[in-house]
Sequence to fold (704 residues):
Amino acid sequence: MSEVLRPQPEGVPGQRPMPSHREKGMAVLISAILMFFTLGTVGLAIDGGLAYLVKGRLIASVDSAALGAARGLNLGDDVATANAAATASATRFFNANFPSGYMGTDPALTTITPTFTLLTTGGVANGILQVDVVGAVTAPTYFMRMFSVPNIRVSATGTATRRTLVMMLILDISGSMGSRNTTVGTIPSTLVSNASSCEAMVYSAIQFLNFFSPYDYIGVTTFSSQAQVVYTPSTNYKKTGSAGAAKAIANQDCTGSTNTTPSLELSYAAIQNVGLKLAMNEIALFTDGVANTVSGAFPLRTQKDTRYSPSPVSAINPPSTNVQLLHSDPNNPYSPTTYYLGTNVTPTLDSPYSTAQTTLKNSGVTPLYGDSRFLPLSAVQYKKYTDLAQGTRDAFGWYLGSASGPYLPRWIQDSGAPTNNFRNCQNNDAASEFAYKCYMMAVPSASTSPATVTGSITVTPSSSGTLYNNGSSSSVGSMTSYSSKYGYRTGFQKTLPNVNVTAIPSGFPTPSSPNTLVSSQIIAYIPDTDQFGNSNRGFKDNWVFEVNSNCAPSGTPVNGGNLCRFRGGDWGSYSSVGEGSNFFQSGPYRNYLRPDFNNPYPVAAMNSTVSAANKIRNDTDYNIRIDTIYLMGNENVVDRDFLQIVANVEQIKPIVFDNGTVSPYSNPYFNPNQQKGLAMATTDGSQLAGLFAQIAASLLRLSR
Fold:
């Protein structure tokens, strides 16, 4: 069968032939299918983009809510109320950043869920509180609903961490703070006008507690003559009644001295006992004055030396075999001594005189007891002598065994001893507050076991009386707490309530009020380290306190109204004042801090406080920060750098009593590797609450 040839259509060479009807139908079908998927893809992209915008806003909002929740934790008095306050704070922060109905989201389906977790390391709490806020919203779809997806659930989690605060609040309750205006035990709701420093401190410290969270640990240490933890650090510190810290603070009144160092030691141990090394560990120290109490193992004096004698009325009672009290007699070469009771001369021999005594008297010789030329004595004269001597050798430096003699010296004679040395050493005049220097003071006891007595000694102000210069009648002024040559001091006291003072060995004088004989007679010197191993030597070694007076500007609120205070200075600039040094310059205890006048005690106390603070800040496990508040003006002495060094500030700032005479200068003891604290000062008790609030604000920033 032959093939039929059909003619080809005319057209452009190489052009594709026109599709058939079947081919056109397939193209339409494929296009329709592709359009369906294209619309779905575009819709997914658009709805997904909108969801992405919602997600971005949600992330920012829950992050803000987490921070808000962390801040809100400070608003409750216990964990439950703190969590509720934090949740409310998180909601406010979230709503402020995620407006209701944002991008069509459904407000009714929006949820915010905070959770609070104390983190652990190896199963042990580490001091970090983690706040997680989960936010979820329902975003509408515009294209995906054709695929039965009317909305999209979008969620995000915001996380914030808050360092737990572990803080010990140290409060000075020494006597210079004055007495409470309100009844002890009362929690003051307001600060009364003309409040005492003690009242202002109690009120401000209680208000300070309100800034912090029930997740924080807060404790309270107080110090005066002793230091003690009155509230162990706890998260329950905001509770009412005896379970809370506010009541522990309200139970304080102010009396005693200023024993600062032990309060730092107790607070340091309390923070370690909590054991949260990653927490914000803090000591906030409030005080109104110079540390003036020294603790330690005080070595007993076993060698003769020259020092100030017991003041004001304590008498030496040497053993019956004592031959160590040196004395000279420039007035009568025939008498071993010129001392009798409270006078400076040997008493006159009583009449009637024998013929030999009368002849001697008529030749111009004064009839004195102790002059061997007037022996033998009559019965009347001998009785008078024994009455005056009271059967002992304490009233005379010699002894008459019988009326016919001989006079026997009771103490070694030394031509180097000053006039009236026996009087200076005996120092038993109860009428005035004398401060005499005793040349080669007798050793109180031959006992050397134990070799030290452990306790604390503090300087105290004079209650009355006048000081005199080495037995003369010329006054050298009223006795003050930090005298550079004189002064009252206590006997041994407890440093801590549960640590007893070591017993004084047998043979040493028994201390009696005012106990200054302890530091003058019994103690060899102030030890180089305190009861806790801190150095009593340091930045104040050459300091003298009651010099360099200057006045605050007129109108400055200062306790007592006197605008002027001693600022102290280096003894090299005041060499004519007092002893000229805090150290023995000669004798067996050369180069040791002297215990026989007042100025060295605050020197040692401030040195040990700085040493303790440095030790605490040097603990790299707990990284403790120390902040200080100084209420100046309650004492006649103020100090510029002491508490600023304790706080480890970079720059020492002037105080109000400098009044433009001093510019800021670099702290020579600043350690950049330790925590830097705040050091604040005021003369006005009504400003204390504001200073505490500034410390709180700083701590809250650092704990985030």
